[in-house]
Design goal:
By secondary structure, the protein is α+β, with helices and mostly antiparallel strands. It has 7 helices and 14 strands. The structure holds 2-acetamido-2-deoxy-beta-D-glucopyranose. It is a multi-pass membrane protein.
């Protein structure tokens, strides 16, 4: 009984065999078939290699959601050089919520404003990248991918003199605020704050400045912020520079790095302060920032291994059957044109069209030319 069912099962499985063995004597090879097979192999190899590159490649996926994190602090990284002596300028941050001044994390370092040729080269390379970024957002992906591999953004140190480099980082609340760099050191008093500017002569005012780095959130080596490399030279003593920044919290998840950072967009404006002409204000550099309520998650995606394998199978099987069908079709057309219509002979076909023996028998007159052309196929 048991034996019987096993035998039945075996025969059932045998019936299901999709790969029946064909005896060697029934198999015939032809030159055209060989050529087509060769082409198929080359195509498969080529496509498989290309597919492998697609598999190795990664792409960035952007997702947006409402930023629910409103309690954490926002870190601002600053590296700005102003063409004034350090004792004459002061930087501080006012935020909307508490009018609180948080500038203790900033350092003042006397430097020279002019760049060395080497630094100038670095600066122009940076500006070039900035211009490309402005043109196409896609470049951002390239930067996320390549620059993250550890290209330093920090410019080489400068020898000291008449300008002031203000650098460091401060933590502020996640509300709109205003970073300003103006004449005089800031002083704090209960009603607000002021800058002592009494002893600074008006014609030493020079708010020409260069932003080497300005970013929000964790500092990630290699990521270039929109304002990095900006240089503004003015020939007026009373110039006001304003930058309006919208900060977008960005969660970065790439293979190399995963971090909470902040991208930002910026618009800028500058104007001459001239009270007589009705252009009021305070000369200096002002950076107004606000945070966006949307958060962006950027994650690096790549094809899963399973999908890659399935696609490989698809390529191999697809190319094989497609070239097989094309070969058959071409052979059939060739037979029809070359042998049937020309000679006006009709004979029912008993064998496959790519059968060389058959075609030679089908066109007895043009055997030589037929088989020659078929070889070229
Ligand atoms: C400010 O400094 C820059 C760089 O040293 C210089 O080119 C510019 O003429 C100066 N402007 C004024 C008003 O002194």
């Amino acid at each position: 009984m048991r034996r019987l069912t096993r035998g039945k099962a075996l025969s059932l499985v045998r019936e299901l065999d999709a790969f029946p063995k064909v005896s060697d004597s029934y198999v015939e090879t032809s030159a055209s078939g060989g050529t087509v097979s060769l082409i198929a192999f080359v195509a498969i190899a080529l496509l498989a290699v290309l597919e492998f590159f697609v598999y190795r490649d990664t792409w960035m996926k952007y997702e947006y959601e409402v930023d629910k994190d409103f309690s954490s602090k926002l870190r601002i990284n600053i590296d700005i050089t102003v063409a004034m002596k350090c004792q004459h300028v002061g930087a501080d941050i006012l935020d909307l919520a508490e009018t609180m001044i948080t500038s203790s994390g900033l350092h003042y370092e006397p430097v020279i404003f002019e760049l060395t040729p080497q630094q100038r080269l670095w600066q122009s390379a940076l500006l070039l990248i900035q211009n490309r970024l402005r043109e196409e957002h896609a470049a951002q992906e390239v930067l996320y991918k390549t620059l993250l591999k550890g290209r330093p953004t920090a410019p080489p140190p400068r020898s000291p003199l008449g300008a002031c480099r203000i650098h460091g980082h401060v933590h502020v609340n996640k509300v709109a605020g205003n970073l300003h760099i103006t004449v005089g050191k800031p002083i704090h008093h209960p009603q607000g704050h002021a800058h002592i500017a009494a002893f600074v002569s008006h014609n030493t005012y020079n708010f020409s400045h260069r932003i080497d780095h300005l970013s929000f959130g964790e500092e990630i080596p290699g990521v270039i912020s929109p304002l990095d490399g900006t240089e503004k030279i003015t020939f007026n003593n009373n110039q006001m520079f304003q930058y309006f920044i919208t900060v977008v919290p960005t969660r970065l998840n790439t293979r190399k790095i995963s971090a909470d950072t902040h991208q930002f967009s910026v618009t800028e404006r500058e104007r001459l302060i001239n009270h007589a002409a009705g252009s009021h204000g305070v000369s200096g550099v002002f950076v107004k920032y606000d945070t966006s309520s949307l958060m962006v998650t950027v994650s690096e995606q790549h094809m899963p291994l399973g999908q890659f394998l399935v696609r490989l199978c698809g390529i191999v099987g697809g190319v094989f059957s497609t070239t097989g069908m094309l070969h058959g079709l071409l052979g059939f057309c060739f037979d029809a044109i070359c042998c049937r219509f020309k000679l006006g002979i009709y004979r029912p076909r008993e064998e496959s069209p790519d059968d060389a023996a058959h075609s030679s028998s089908a066109c007895p007159v043009q055997t030589a030319s037929c088989s020659k052309d078929r070889t070229l196929l």
